[in-house]
UniProtKB/TrEMBL annotation:
<protein>
    <recommendedName>
        <fullName>ribonuclease III</fullName>
        <ecNumber>3.1.26.3</ecNumber>
    </recommendedName>
</protein>
<feature type="domain" description="DRBM">
    <location>
        <begin position="160"/>
        <end position="228"/>
    </location>
</feature>
<dbReference type="InterPro" id="IPR014720">
    <property type="entry name" value="dsRBD_dom"/>
</dbReference>
<dbReference type="GO" id="GO:0003725">
    <property type="term" value="F:double-stranded RNA binding"/>
</dbReference>
<dbReference type="InterPro" id="IPR011907">
    <property type="entry name" value="RNase_III"/>
</dbReference>
<dbReference type="InterPro" id="IPR000999">
    <property type="entry name" value="RNase_III_dom"/>
</dbReference>
<dbReference type="GO" id="GO:0006364">
    <property type="term" value="P:rRNA processing"/>
</dbReference>
<keyword id="KW-0255">Endonuclease</keyword>
<keyword id="KW-0540">Nuclease</keyword>
<feature type="domain" description="RNase III">
    <location>
        <begin position="24"/>
        <end position="133"/>
    </location>
</feature>
<dbReference type="GO" id="GO:0004525">
    <property type="term" value="F:ribonuclease III activity"/>
</dbReference>
<dbReference type="Pfam" id="PF00035">
    <property type="entry name" value="dsrm"/>
</dbReference>
<dbReference type="InterPro" id="IPR036389">
    <property type="entry name" value="RNase_III_sf"/>
</dbReference>
<keyword id="KW-0378">Hydrolase</keyword>
<dbReference type="GO" id="GO:0010468">
    <property type="term" value="P:regulation of gene expression"/>
</dbReference>
<dbReference type="Pfam" id="PF14622">
    <property type="entry name" value="Ribonucleas_3_3"/>
</dbReference>
<comment type="similarity">
    <text>Belongs to the ribonuclease III family.</text>
</comment>
Length: 229
């Protein structure tokens, strides 16, 4: 059943979508609500949305910031396409008020949980892809994340995320961050995936064309999500 609210209408208008669109409704349907009402959740849409958002930001970097080298561009993208940033933008769009949550999830504060909001943002971009096409979805993602990208480009190495994370962990008595890096791909075009852990708990995962970029990107994700740890 589709329940129309002012929050839903405002969000749909901002994205250029029909508020009764099945894709739009599904993008805002958390698994807790889906379980209670025998509906499909937004989980599969997140997969597509994540790919579109990454493509949109990579495209914007190449088109609008030709002076950035590959490593700096990758780091700037990691400062935009991560849970804290996407959650912050989702909140500014009014996603918490529009989310379809199960009773227990809503009572426990799920509407403001960063992971839930970031997932919903990606699902909404996927809904735009389904209803309006790839070109429109990329344009919407770029528009919504333009300011975040501009800030990231201004200071892609801002205060060295690895040093920031190390200091935060030490001051809080959490133990030093440790990194695991795995390389893949051919020797002439490798890709590295870095995982940063604190006290044995994974705090961030990122990829890059060098170990340094991958580790810095993972540290940045961990640093920006530190308040939710």
């Amino acid at each position: 059943m589709v329940v129309l609210t002012s929050a839903l209408a405002a969000l749909a208008q901002r994205l250029g979508l029909d508020e009764v669109s099945p894709s739009f409704q599904r993008a805002l349907t958390h698994s807790s609500y889906a379980s209670e009402h025998a509906e499909a959740s937004n989980e599969r849409m997140e997969f597509l949305g994540d790919a579109v958002v990454n493509l949109a930001i990579a495209d914007a970097i190449l088109r609008d910031y030709p002076e950035l080298d590959e490593g700096t561009g990758s780091l700037a993208r990691s400062r935009v396409v991560n849970e804290p940033t996407l959650a912050r933008v989702a909140e500014s769009l009014g996603v918490p008020e529009a989310m379809r949550l199960g009773n227990g999830e809503r009572k426990s504060g799920g509407a403001t949980r960063p992971s839930l909001l970031a997932d919903a943002f990606e699902a909404l971009i996927a809904a735009t892809y389904f209803d309006c096409g790839a070109e429109r979805a990329i344009a919407v993602a770029q528009e919504l994340l333009r300011d975040e990208l501009a800030n990231a480009v201004l200071s892609p190495h801002s205060a060295d995320p690895k040093s920031q994370l190390r200091h935060w962990a030490e001051v809080g008595g959490r133990g030093l961050p440790t990194y695991e890096v795995v390389g893949s791909g051919p020797d002439h075009d490798p890709t590295f995936t870095a995982v940063v852990m604190i006290d044995g708990v994974v705090r961030g995962t990122a990829t890059g064309r060098s170990k340094k970029v991958a580790e810095a990107s993972a540290a940045l994700i961990a640093w920006e999500g530190r308040d939710n740890a």
